[in-house]
Write a structure and sequence with these properties.
Layout: H1 2-26, H2 31-35, H3 43-54, H4 57-60, H5 62-99, H6 106-114, H7 116-149, H8 153-202, H9 205-215, H10 225-244, H11 246-254, H12 258-289, H13 298-306, H14 309-346, E1 347-349, E2 353-355, E3 358-360, E4 367-369, H15 371-377, H16 385-388, H17 391-394, H18 401-424, H19 433-444, H20 455-459, H21 463-467, H22 470-495, H23 504-518, H24 521-526
Antiparallel strand pairs: 1-4, 2-3
Helix pairs in contact: 1-8, 3-8, 3-11, 3-12, 3-14, 5-10, 5-12, 6-7, 7-8, 7-14, 8-12, 8-14, 9-12, 11-14, 12-13, 18-19, 22-23
Length: 538
């Protein structure tokens, strides 16, 4: 049975590793892609991935246990709390992503908006929450395999954890998104098949209702107060958990743009609601038909009591898919938060200040390394790096603020003079949108009322923003026109040739055919993703 477990895990591991291998051949995998896959994933892939992550422990264990404890009211509160959180997250996440386009987590927004104390508090809560989620997932799946196949729990935990770590280490969130999509294709059909099998096996819905009314009638009572209390508490917890779980923020940044983000999480919520209710129904089926020994693994006790071996294998494969997707989300989320925190510990962002009433634009220095960075990395070169790279060397303003302010003025002045040359010769008009904005800021200090820290300016540097700009459209049209002009020139050469050769008729037809294609809208669309051509030289 251990071999079957390893083979099941290996299927998803191989899929993830192969995806990373072939993706890296097309494009180098950067740190940002590993942490957020920023703006590179289609909405449907992020939708499928989010469904897989959300349906992990939430669908395998919690709804059934809620059904057995809180009944129908608890089930609906559980499902509605989860779905409402997803809908709200879609809108809130969109606003935060627009405000912080280069961010990677909700914790970074907390730092900028509410300060360090709120940031550290949310970071701690996020890490604890994802750690608990990961632990519960591994504990749950190990209990399921132990109940059905008798595999020791520690073996299940080790095998699953190693499998997830292999493909998440290779490709980060990009690999998880791909594998999650495959896992969702396994999860949803299996859930539906299992539901109809169980219902038919126990004699239909009426038999389940009769059994529950006989064994635990309060579970079907819409006025069951404890059910609403239990379910409401669960719903509130699930609603808030979504906002502190980094795995959802990663998917918010992974989707291509803000418009697709709303579509993504709306679809997730619509699909998730019936699936959670379907999962909860297994708890009611168990309450009306069998004596449950462990409410945490109700579904698997039902399988053990009623299902044939072939169905048990399929459901365990589905359960493994669910847990691996959620576990990879938790691991990626924890990694992302630690990576961001490490950056914040080893570098500090420069901020503007004032000296003698005059503003000093020290934010132009960007991020600067600090003592922590020096100790961690320069120690490989120097025996005592802290004595060489002292605090006042890393932050020259500590030596003499007035001298530092004068140096910053010289640097800003050099920026201004360099930018003015682009305005003087008119080449500013040929600059791409982010460079144009940057040159205006270097000369004037702002662009259309926005500064370097404005989200609108930073968003200009995103790939999708450049590809959707008029500047890029003009480059593609220029590239097309160059191709058309070259073919027209060749066409005239063949037509005006005084000595006709035998092959010229066929060449003439070929050039006309190619010219027709190069003039078409289809060819223009095919140029998307290329550099195009500079309109100034066409």
């Amino acid at each position: 049975m251990v071999l079957y477990l390893i083979l099941m895990v290996a299927i998803f591991v191989v899929a993830g590793v192969l995806f990373v291998y072939f993706s890296s051949k097309k494009q180098a995998i950067t740190t940002d892609q590993i942490l957020t896959a920023r703006g590179s994933s289609p909405w449907w892939q992020v939708t499928l991935s989010s469904i897989a992550v959300l349906m992990g422990a939430w669908a395998l264990f919690s709804p059934q246990e809620t059904a057995m404890i809180a009944g129908v009211p608890g089930c609906f509160a559980f499902a509605l709390g989860s779905v409402l959180g997803i809908f709200v997250f879609g809108f809130v996440g969109r606003r935060i992503r627009k405000y912080l386009p280069n961010g990677s987590s909700g914790t970074e927004f907390m730092r900028l908006r509410y300060g360090k104390l709120s940031y550290y508090l949310m970071t701690i809560i996020s890490l604890i929450g994802m750690g608990i989620m990961l632990t519960s997932e591994l504990t749950g799946i190990s209990s399921a395999f132990n109940a059905l196949w008798g595999i020791p729990r520690w073996i299940v935990i080790v095998v699953v954890l190693i499998g997830v770590l292999i493909y998440t280490t290779c490709g980060g969130i990009k690999a998880s998104l791909f594998v999650d999509s495959i896992q969702t294709a396994v999860i949803i059909p299996t859930f539906i098949v299992l539901f109809f099998y169980m219902i038919s096996h126990v004699g239909g819905v009426s038999a389940v209702v009769s059994g529950v009314q006989e064994r635990a009638p309060q579970l079907l009572d819409w006025g069951y107060g404890y059910g609403w209390q239990h379910g409401g508490g669960f719903a509130l917890g699930l609603f808030t958990a979504i906002f502190v779980d980094q795995s959802y923020w990663q998917r918010a940044y992974a989707v291509k743009d803000e418009k697709n983000m709303i579509k993504t999480f709306t679809c997730v919520g619509i699909i998730l609601l019936p699936m959670l209710l379907l999962a909860a129904s297994f708890g009611l089926i168990a309450a009306g038909t069998i004596d449950v020994q462990n409410q945490s693994i109700v579904m698997f006790e039902l399988l053990n009591a009623m299902a044939p071996k072939w169905l048990q294998v399929i459901v365990l494969f589905m359960a493994l898919a669910l847990i691996m997707s959620t576990a990879s989300g938790s691991i990626n989320g924890i990694t992302s938060i630690l990576a961001v925190e490490t950056k914040n510990l080893m570098a500090a962002k420069s901020h503007n200040g004032t000296v003698n009433g005059k503003k000093v634009l020290s934010s132009r220095l960007g991020w600067r390394i600090n003592e922590e960075f020096v100790i961690n990395f320069f120690g490989r070169v120097f025996s005592n790096p802290a004595s060489i790279f002292t605090a006042d060397m890393l932050r020259p303003e500590l030596q003499n603020m007035e001298v530092f302010a004068e140096g910053m003025d010289n640097m800003v002045g050099a920026h201004r003079r360099a930018a003015e040359m682009y305005f003087a010769d008119g080449s500013i008009e040929g600059a791409c949108p982010p460079l144009k904005a940057l040159l205006h800021i270097m000369r004037d200090g702002s662009y259309e009322g926005k500064t370097l820290d404005s989200p609108e300016i930073r968003n200009l540097f995103m790939l999708e923003s450049i590809k959707n700009s008029e500047w890029y459209a003009e480059r593609l049209i220029s590239r097309q026109q160059i191709e058309v002009n070259a073919l027209q020139h060749r066409l005239h050469e063949i037509s005006d040739s005084p000595a006709k050769r035998a092959h010229e008729d066929s060449e003439l037809a070929a050039v006309k055919s190619e010219l027709k294609y190069k003039k078409s809208l289809g060819y223009l669309k095919s140029l998307a993703g290329t550099l195009g051509a500079d309109p100034f030289v066409c």
